[in-house]
């Protein structure tokens, strides 16, 4: 007889749960989904279920959300049906039933990225092309040529044409009407930015304008301009301007909300630099939150800058954040457990083993090679001679006797212990012989480059027999130098 499972959920997760179960087909059970009257499934409790759940004829098992609080054994006694906690996240249901996890695709997104070369008048065309290549590699869709007040830009036309020659979509960003016209005449695809006083430029060019208020926060002027372009059926993008924290940030978010409410179908841009550049905090988290707002308001474009040294990975962060938010929105779920690339300083699960498991593993080691692991209790180094625990690499020096006459292995262990200490302090995953994962904050190395470097590290690590692996580039170079 086929088992019948009742899945309990809340309003927000009901459709998502249905999609996950549909994707599991075929399954060896019949099922029913029931929303018991809560918005968030995680707020469900055993007592609430006991009060609200009725009509269990034919139900063989009840599966509740993983965060459901309360005594499920007592609930089983009340309902007369076995009750089981499922996974914390609906997307993990396949694993719960012994299937492979269904990863959400990060191939799609709905937000374009304009990456601004802020100091374009002060750098050569070659440098502009080099910067554009990096921005495109990091995820930019449009290269924005930033003009500077009272700064001559004689090579503006050349820059626009050179970028077009390399296949880039180009925007010109200026407060000067003449520069905007020059950029448009050179073939710029977008102009940033036009207001009521400069809207006439749009009639003289095919470039798509970004429309802003006549004066800062003057939303009626932006509305008039938007209405005019809608009446003329001309393409445009509207931007109500994001302000820095303590200089109108919250009010500016509300203006974006009002703009979207008033014009559900228009394209909107948000410039993120006033937050990422002017807030001394890691930009990955800032961009994640901004992309959450952008996703909820269906904002279509962002203008990004990388001026401050701490904002050096903004374009990569926005590219990943827009993909995560899109995937979560399509899945009607939280932007959690999809990709960890924005967790540059920490990790959700930094410690794969607990201290008991490491002690058990250490008891089984019969060779002299050192293993390194971390848990909340500290760094653990062990081989056949025993296990040593500490929180600072210097604490291990007296215990690592095998390294006294083995400089290469000592160097290797110094590197590994330093990595382990960083991971322990920050709450990051440490894996011996592997780089720490800094997420999207660090440009991934080419596979060949990484393999060569890791081989050099292995050259310095002794085998249990006391011999070394075949010499790689590091040892070969050192031997040549010593001759």
Features:
483 residues, alpha/beta, Rossmann fold, TIM Barrel, 3 domains, four-stranded parallel beta sheet, 37% helix, 14% strand, flat, disordered C terminus
Present the secondary structure layout:
Elements: E1 3-9, H1 14-24, E2 29-35, H2 46-52, E3 61-64, H3 72-79, E4 83-85, H4 93-96, E5 112-117, H5 125-138, E6 142-146, H6 156-165, E7 170-173, H7 177-185, E8 190-194, E9 208-211, H8 219-231, E10 237-238, H9 249-262, E11 269-271, H10 273-276, H11 283-297, E12 301-304, H12 314-330, H13 355-363, E13 371-375, E14 378-383, E15 386-390, H14 407-426, H15 447-459, H16 473-482
Parallel strand pairs: 1-2, 1-3, 3-4, 5-6, 5-12, 6-7, 7-8, 8-9, 9-10, 11-12
Antiparallel strand pairs: 13-14, 14-15
Helix pairs in contact: 2-3, 5-6, 11-12
Describe the structure in your own words.
About 35% of the residues lie in helices and about 15% in strands. With about 475 residues, it is α/β, with parallel strands linked by helices. Helix 8 links the parallel strand 9 (about 210) and strand 10 (about 235-240). The longest helix has 20 residues, at about 405-425.
């Amino acid at each position: 007889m086929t088992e019948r499972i009742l899945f309990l959920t809340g309003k927000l997760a009901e459709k998502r749960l249905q999609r996950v179960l549909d994707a599991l087909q075929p399954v060896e059970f019949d099922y029913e989904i029931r929303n018991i009257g809560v918005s968030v499934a995680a707020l469900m409790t055993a007592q609430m279920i006991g009060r609200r759940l009725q009509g269990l004829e034919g139900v063989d098992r009840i599966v509740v959300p993983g965060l459901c609080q309360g005594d499920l054994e007592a609930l089983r006694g009340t309902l007369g049906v076995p009750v089981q906690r499922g996974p914390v996240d609906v997307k993990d249901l396949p694993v719960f039933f012994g299937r492979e996890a269904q990863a959400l695709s990060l191939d799609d997104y709905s937000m374009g990225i304009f990456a601004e070369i802020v100091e374009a008048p002060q750098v050569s065309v070659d440098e502009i092309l080099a910067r554009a290549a990096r921005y495109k590699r990091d995820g930019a869709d449009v290269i924005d040529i930033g003009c500077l007040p009272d700064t001559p830009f004689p090579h503006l036309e050349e820059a626009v044409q050179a970028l077009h020659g390399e296949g880039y979509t180009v925007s010109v960003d200026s407060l000067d009407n003449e520069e905007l016209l020059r950029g448009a005449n050179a073939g710029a695809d977008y102009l940033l930015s036009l207001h009521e006083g400069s809207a006439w430029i749009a009639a003289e060019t095919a470039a798509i304008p970004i429309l802003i208020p006549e004066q800062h926060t003057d939303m009626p002027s932006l509305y008039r301009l938007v209405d005019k372009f809608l009446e003329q059926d001309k393409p445009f993008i509207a931007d109500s301007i994001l302000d820095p924290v303590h200089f109108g940030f919250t009010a500016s978010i509300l203006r974006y909300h009002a703009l979207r409410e008033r014009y559900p179908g228009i394209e909107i841009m948000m410039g993120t630099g006033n937050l990422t550049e002017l807030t001394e905090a890691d930009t990955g988290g800032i961009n994640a939150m901004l992309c959450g707002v952008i996703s909820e308001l269906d904002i279509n474009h962002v203008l990004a800058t990388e001026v401050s040294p701490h904002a050096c990975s903004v374009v990569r962060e926005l590219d990943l954040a827009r993909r995560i938010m899109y995937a979560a929105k399509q899945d009607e779920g939280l932007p959690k457990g999809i990709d960890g690339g924005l967790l540059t300083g920490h990790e959700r699960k930094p410690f794969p083993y607990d201290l008991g498991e490491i002690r058990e593993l250490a008891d089984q080691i019969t060779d002299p090679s050192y293993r390194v692991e971390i848990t909340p209790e500290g760094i653990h180094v062990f081989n056949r001679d025993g296990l040593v625990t500490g929180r600072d690499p210097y604490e291990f020096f007296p215990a690592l006797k095998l390294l006294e006459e083995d400089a290469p292995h000592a160097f290797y262990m110094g590197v590994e212990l330093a990595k382990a200490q960083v991971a322990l302090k920050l709450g990051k995953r440490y894996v011996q012989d592997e780089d720490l994962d800094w997420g999207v904050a660090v440009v991934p190395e080419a596979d060949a480059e990484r393999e060569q470097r890791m081989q050099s590290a292995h050259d310095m690590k002794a085998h249990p027999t006391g011999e070394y692996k075949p010499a790689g580039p590091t040892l070969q170079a050192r031997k040549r130098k010593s001759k």
